[in-house]
């Protein structure tokens, strides 16, 4: 099943849809990682036979690509102003 490129791309599209429904960048990196993994598996580039042979290797590649994509999106898009609220005092201290 991990050798079927369309499964990876369908999973990526499903994760992208979930990302639209859930606030924040929780699933965006996973969606990008799944689509890129699907493209690499689908192209079956010469010398990449090691990737299509093992589920473990495919999952590791997916995980690495997902983390890199998430970190890149976080660096480019950054943290929104006002996303983190700082509390200077406790309302019960008065």
From TrEMBL:
TM ranges: 6-22, 27-45, 57-77
Keywords: Membrane, Transmembrane, Transmembrane helix
Protein name: NfeD-like C-terminal domain-containing protein
Organism: Pararhodobacter aggregans
Organism ancestry: Bacteria, Pseudomonadati, Pseudomonadota, Alphaproteobacteria, Rhodobacterales
């Amino acid at each position: 099943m991990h050798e079927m490129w369309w499964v990876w791309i369908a999973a990526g599209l499903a994760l992208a849809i979930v990302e639209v429904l859930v606030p924040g960048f929780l699933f965006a990196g996973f969606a990008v990682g799944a689509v890129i993994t699907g493209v690499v598996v689908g192209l079956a580039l010469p010398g990449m036979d090691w990737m299509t042979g093992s589920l473990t290797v495919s999952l590791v590649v997916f995980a690495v690509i997902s983390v890199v994509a998430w970190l890149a999106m976080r660096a480019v898009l950054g943290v929104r102003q006002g996303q983190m609220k700082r509390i200077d005092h406790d309302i019960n201290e008065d």
